[in-house]
Structure formats: structure tokens, C-alpha cells
Amino acid sequence: MQHWAPMSASAPSDLAVAFRSLPRRLKEAASDDVSAAAIAAAEAGVNAALAAAAATLGCGASAESVAAAIQARKAREWSNTDLAAVQRSANEAAAVIRGLQTASR
Length: 105
Fold this sequence. Notes:
Blueprint: H1 12-29, H2 36-57, H3 63-72, H4 80-103
Helix pairs in contact: 1-3, 1-4, 2-3, 2-4
């Protein structure tokens, strides 16, 4: 039987910071040597992750809206399921941006 180490979970405040940084990180990753198609695909991937987080939180699908909704939710209002879903969305957006960064090297 294999045992997998769980990913470290972020606190909601850390997730809010991560979501707020997505537009800046995406812009920084979109260098001149990356194709427009790769940038568009990355933008779509980040937008999909934002939409998933927004659906979980019941808010708008912008980075700022998601971050604000995370910060507005009290600790006792978080379910493990919601926190895991928002964490997964943050991880997916970060992976898309890392892929774009790799493409620009």
C-alpha cells in the first residue's frame, strides 16, 4: 500500500493573497517570446480556475472578487470541501502560469 503525502493546505488568508496575485503573475509570465496562442490558453486556464473558485464561493469570477469573498468568510463558515475546492482552483491557476513561464524559457 502506498502512502501519499498530502499537499500542504493554505490558510484562507494565504489563498486570498494567491488569488489577488494571479493577474500580475499572468502578466509577468506573458513575455514577448511566448506565442499569442499560448498566452490566450493560459488566460483561459486562469479564468477557468477563477470561475471554479467563484462558483464555490458564490461571488464574481475576478481575482479581486474571489480574494474578497475568501477574506469575508469567517473561519467557522469554511467547510473542508469548500476550502479544498478553492485550494484546488488556486493550484490549477498557478500550474497554468508556471506552464506559461516554462514556455517562455
